From TrEMBL:
A Pfam family reported for this protein in Swiss-Prot or TrEMBL: SSB
Name used for this protein in its record: Single-stranded DNA-binding protein RIM1, mitochondrial
Top-level taxonomic group: Eukaryota
Keywords, alphabetical: DNA-binding
Endpoints of the signal sequence: none
GO MF, one annotated term: single-stranded DNA binding
InterPro entries listed in its UniProt record: NA-bd_OB-fold, Primosome_PriB/ssb
Region Disordered, annotated ranges: 128-154
Length: 154
């Protein structure tokens, strides 16, 4: 009887579909426009980190035709062709981003505690690029095209 009870407790504490321990998961999916061209900076380990900001619109338009925008800072350690593509995207590009989300608390120089949301990109897809007003590319960030229909349209 004790062996049966021990077997039940063991089966409840482990996951039958995986041999790895359970980990926490905080994931975000965002669709928004690049605030500027992504930039690569070297880390102390010599690996480049790509940083960019994404503006995500929400809600209905107000009287002046504007929508509320939330800004998210994203970091990426993409390499190879993904890195090259990400660094080539211009301001205003509509992106779909999947990222791990983590809340970090830190102390500022004045001694106050701050909390920041850190997003680490795991996957991205360029949904549309900004329209170019003329052949020279002037005004590339002024007018932007919206996707034709849903995710993945370009």
């Amino acid at each position: 009887m004790a062996a049966l009870r021990s077997l039940r407790l063991t089966s409840l504490s482990s996951r039958s579909f995986s041999t790895t321990p359970r980990t926490s998961l905080a994931k975000m999916q965002l669709i928004g426009r690049l605030a500027d061209t992504p930039a690569a900076t070297p880390t102390s380990t010599g690996r480049d980190v790509i940083r960019y900001s994404l503006g995500v619109s929400s809600g209905s338009r107000d009287e002046s035709g504007n929508r509320k925008v939330s800004w998210f800072n994203v970091a990426s350690f993409s390499e190879g062709p993904q890195r090259d593509l990400l660094l080539s995207l211009p301001k205003g590009t509509l992106l779909y981003v999947e990222a791990e989300a983590k809340m970090d608390t830190f102390q500022t120089q004045d001694g106050s505690n701050r909390t920041a949301l850190n997003l680490l990109q795991r996957n991205f897809e360029s949904l549309s690029r900004p329209k170019v007003d003329n052949l020279e590319g002037e005004g590339a960030g002024s007018a932007v095209e919206e996707p034709q229909s849903g995710l993945g349209a370009s």
